[in-house]
Write a structure and sequence with these properties.
By secondary structure, this protein is mostly helical. The protein has 1 helix and no strands. It has a domain at 17-41. The protein has one helix spanning 13-46. It is rod-shaped.
């Protein structure tokens, strides 16, 4: 593996792209968790354990 140099690289387009890619991964993870939570809530409600 190639070393990436200092822990804080100079700001450039590649750094910005990496930052946005990381943000996209976080958003995807959060959406996945929210989808799972909503699906679980719907399942519980369908089983009669929900607030309805």
């Amino acid at each position: 593996m190639r070393r990436k140099g200092p822990s804080r690289p100079t700001r450039n387009r590649r750094t910005d792209a990496n930052r946005w890619r990381d943000v996209g991964e976080w958003v995807a993870l959060i959406l996945k968790v929210l989808t799972y939570a909503v699906g679980l809530a719907v399942t519980l409600a369908g089983n009669g354990c929900g607030p309805n």
